[in-house]
Amino acid sequence: MRIVRYTYPESRNLAPAFGLSLRSPWAGLESEIDRFFETALSGSTGAPLDNRFPVDLYDDKDHTYVRAELPGVSRDDINVEMIEDYLTIQAARKQKTGDREESFSFSRSVSIPDAVQADKVTAAYENGVLTVTLPKKEEAQPKKVSIAVK
After folding, report:
1. Where are the beta strands (DSSP E) in the chain?
2. Which DSSP letter does residue 116 get?
3. For the chain, what is the domain count?
4. Minimal CA–CA distance to 95: which of 112, 119, 77, 114?
C-alpha cells in the first residue's frame, strides 16, 4: 500500500511568497508509513505474502461471521477447518493459459473466540464469496438484565 502525497493548494503555500523553502511536515511520516506497510506485508524473506487473502470478521447477537472473497475458485477447491480456536481457509485456483496450466494456492488462519460452537459451523460459497457462520455458545450471547425498582 502506498499513500498518495497530499499537495497543498497554491493559495495556502506561503513559502514561495516569502522566499522560504520549507519541508513538508508530512515527508517523514509518509516514508515511515510506507516502510511500516512494506515490512508488515512481507514475509521473513522480504517477499510479499501473495498467498494470503483478506477476510472480514463481524458478528451479531447469535453468530460470528467470517467472509472471504475468493473469485475464480471452484467450490471443490476450498477447504475450511476449525481447529481449537482457529479457523483455517485453504483454496486453490487453477488457471489455464494455452497448453500450460498453473495452480495457485491461498491460505488464511483466523483466531476465533472460544465462545463458538465448533460442531455447528457452516460455510456457504456463492458468487466468489465464502461466508463461514460460527454460532455463539449460549453462555456467550448477551442477555438482557432487568433492573428492579426499590
Report:
1. 55-59, 63-69, 78-83, 86-97, 100-111, 122-126, 129-135
2. B
3. 2
4. 77
- List 91's β-bridge partners, or say none: 78, 106
Q: What is the CA radius of gyration of the chain?
A: 24
Of 69, 39, 75, 27, residue with least CA distance to 52: 69
Residue 148 CA to residue 90 CA, distance in Å, equals 51
Cell numbers that stand for 9 in this block: 493548494
Binned at pLDDT 50, 70 and 90, residue 18 comes out as low
What CATH number does the domain containing 117 carry?
2.60.40.790
Alpha helices in the chain (DSSP H): 27-40
Name the average pLDDT for the chain. Answer: 75
Average pLDDT of the residues in 85-101: 86
The answer to whether the Cα torsion of 52, 58, 63, 64 is positive or negative is positive
**Does the pLDDT value for residue 90 go beyond 50?**
yes
Whether residues 33 and 85 share a domain: the answer is no
38's CB contacts (< 8 A; 6+ apart) are: none
What pTM value is reported for the model? Answer: 0.58
**Confidence check: pLDDT of 108 > 70:** yes
